[in-house]
Amino acid sequence: MTVSTEGTVAVLPPGGPAAPARPIPAVRRGLGSRGTLLLLEAVVAFGAALVLPLLAVRFRLDPLDRIAQVSGLAAIQLRFALVGLLFIGAVALAMRLRGGRHFDLAARIAAAALAGLASGFVAAGAVVALHGTPWPMFGLNGDSGRIVEWAHAVANGRPSGSPVYPPAPLYTLGYYAEWFRGGNTAYAFKDLQILGAAAFGPLVYLCWRMLLGPVRALAFGVAPAFALIDAYKPYSQTVLVVLVPVLVAMVVSLSRTGTQGWRTLLLKGAGFGALLGVLFLTYSGWFLWSAAGVLFAALLYFPWRTGRLGRLKGAAFLGASLAAFLVVAGRYLAVMLTEGQTTKDYNFRFDNFTDPAYYLMWRTDMPGKVGEWPPPGEYGGVGLFALVTFVCLGAAIWLGIRRPMVVTVAAMFISAWVMRMYIASHMYETQTVQLYTRTNNQLLYCGLLLCALVVHLVSQRMAARRAESASTTQGAGFPGREGAVIGTLCALLLLLGTVSSSMADRYMPAKENTYRILPWVSHTITEQDGSCPKYAPGGTCSKDGDQSWLSFIR
After folding, report:
1. CB–CB of 229/197 below 8 Å?
2. DSSP H helical segments within 401-438, as ranges?
3. Residue of 36, 34, 52 lying closest to 114 (CA atoms)
4. Can you give the pTM of this predicted structure?
5. What is the SS3 assignment for 287?
6. How far apart are CA 286 and CA 66, in angstroms?
7. Which of 43, 305, 334, 408 is deepest in the core (most CB within 10 A)?
């Protein structure tokens, strides 16, 4: 399979020649032009991610009133739809004007914009939820309070309260507070919760662009990731959805090193290693769940059959990656290998008392009102969604057994599953949890990706069949790709708008044992000048905020 800069794909049908790909205009050939277009996509995606949060700042509503919350979500949805339709309309116009010369460019820009708008929707929801209070979600309580305290310490040259906690979020928050908030890490954390949620879509989109064309990256990489977007601690989930395509792209590059020049492969290896180092410094847990699967994929796609020189190049690629990784994150890795072994997690949560094979929905550490859990399924207690996921796992391997992208994602799924069961099986003996329930997120994301990859592989075969049919029957068969692109963008606009609204709604303030309590508490904490937040219930507040919700879980 080869992917052009326009996202078109040339497929090798079994036993046949490559299907003809859409010609690439001469102006778009070359590394420089490709880099310029990718930079344009990045600018559009990050710019679009800020549109809705900036518009939401102007909303005038009481964020603790449910009617106001619904009105706020509807207002965000309206703006999301109108802006998104403008980009899709531009794609439709580009199809009609000048013989469709600029259709690919318009589709590229629209895909990047939708990725940014979707995460900007969730960020705008956080703006509404925290309207009227300077505090981050949950104020100085729980994880939020510890992060704020540790960030303040590292920004002032002191060690954080936990040497094994990923240092990148703490330093980022600490220095951001120094530069923009006068050293107030608490108020700065509110900004980074909103900005972190907004950056989610552009980051995952740009990483999947290493592997797929624009519309396919949006449909098969970004859309599955939105099941995990988080506005409370956005960096942990962002690392997961970015790590998967980065590791897949690294395995793909490894498989091609036997035919690459030395300079190219060394630069690529160092680039992947440095990027993985930054991700490791930001959140390291996903590396543990993924390690075995990625090692399997790397051994499988190592250039064993390219001769001694090819094997040497593969080893050099991995060596450059390892060296760059150690330069960036070696010190923290050493800390994790020593002190991390003695750090124990004794905090048993809601999910630790449920069937360990159920991973399809994470109710968070504050599950709210729960009836029978896991929900009863039709097939031996297993629901349709689980059956579809496992069927897609098998179908993806069947259709893409020779493709590093498919095999690596499947291996990461299986690796997380095995690690989950290994840690959970020792839970009674050690009386520790060791965060094994966090594998829920990786299993869900990889499962959704496998379902998306089945559609991706089938659509490629359909495109190849259409190309063959067009060459023999003068255009009979499936409609043109322009209609497929516009239809896909319309469907994704509605899908991402609906998902983003749901994910934003779960942070709307309410006094209940769910994530809605996080912004509720933020509205009940005394500000640093002694006043209460604008919408504090009854105009009363306290140092720690309203903690009476704890009675709901006792």
Report:
1. yes
2. 404-425, 427-430
3. 52
4. 0.91
5. helix
6. 36
7. 408
- Alpha-carbon torsion, ordered 35, 36, 40, 42, to 10 deg: 30
In the three-class reduction of DSSP (H, G, I as helix; E, B as strand; rest coil), residue 62 is classed as coil
pLDDT tens, residue order, the chain (554 aa): 333 333 333 333 333 333 444 443 433 444 568 889 999 999 999 999 999 999 999 999 999 999 999 999 999 999 999 999 999 999 999 999 988 899 999 999 999 999 999 999 999 999 999 999 999 999 999 999 999 999 999 989 998 888 899 999 999 999 999 999 999 999 999 999 999 999 999 999 999 999 999 999 999 999 999 999 999 999 999 999 999 999 999 999 999 998 899 999 999 999 999 999 999 999 999 999 999 999 999 999 999 999 999 999 999 999 999 999 999 999 999 999 888 777 888 888 888 899 999 999 888 888 888 888 888 888 888 899 999 999 999 999 999 999 999 999 999 999 999 999 999 999 999 999 888 998 999 999 999 999 999 999 998 888 887 777 766 655 555 667 899 999 999 999 999 999 999 999 999 999 999 999 999 999 999 999 999 999 999 999 999 999 887 776 65
Mark out the alpha helices in 29-163 (DSSP H runs).
31-56, 66-96, 103-129, 142-155
CA 134: distance to chain centroid? 27
Short-list 545, 544, 522, CA closest to 190: 522
